[in-house]
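Methods — Computational structure assignment.
A single polypeptide chain was analysed. Its primary sequence is given first, followed by the predicted tertiary structure written as structure tokens.
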Amino acid sequence: MEQGNVFLQMLQKRIELLSHLKGLLLQQQRALVEGDTDRITSFSELQIECMEEIQTLEMAWRKMVQEIKTGHDAAMTTEQAVSLILEDSEIDQFLALGSQVKSLVSEINMIKKNNTMLINNSLTLVRSTMRYLRGEKPTDSFYHPNRKAAAGHIVLNRKL
């Protein structure tokens, strides 16, 4: 069926966009580690553009699924609705592409979580530096060569 082919093409396009977003997030992660603010900003803008494309595709997907559900049972799942218009030979491809989408989304969420931690760590360092420059007492997280180690901060010298 023609409509089934459109769904498969939309899934393939979603995979392309998610793969592109994953690549942008990984490049942003490298820029965060390197402290390259120009690249960080550039990648953020590219991510927004990519996410807008993903959102547009998602809206078209949902509209098509809703049209199928309207003609049948509105309570059915997306997979059930799409399987109604797919030929038997396309169902395995649909399931494989769907699995690939889920995997990419999971990977993207993990990368975003790591990037958020890197950003938060950088912000903490900047805040500590600003407090130090204003003459405030350094916090435990701020290195100073003449400061004694805080109680509870024990470094073990072990050989493996």
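Note: Residues 153-160 have pLDDT under 50 and may be disordered.
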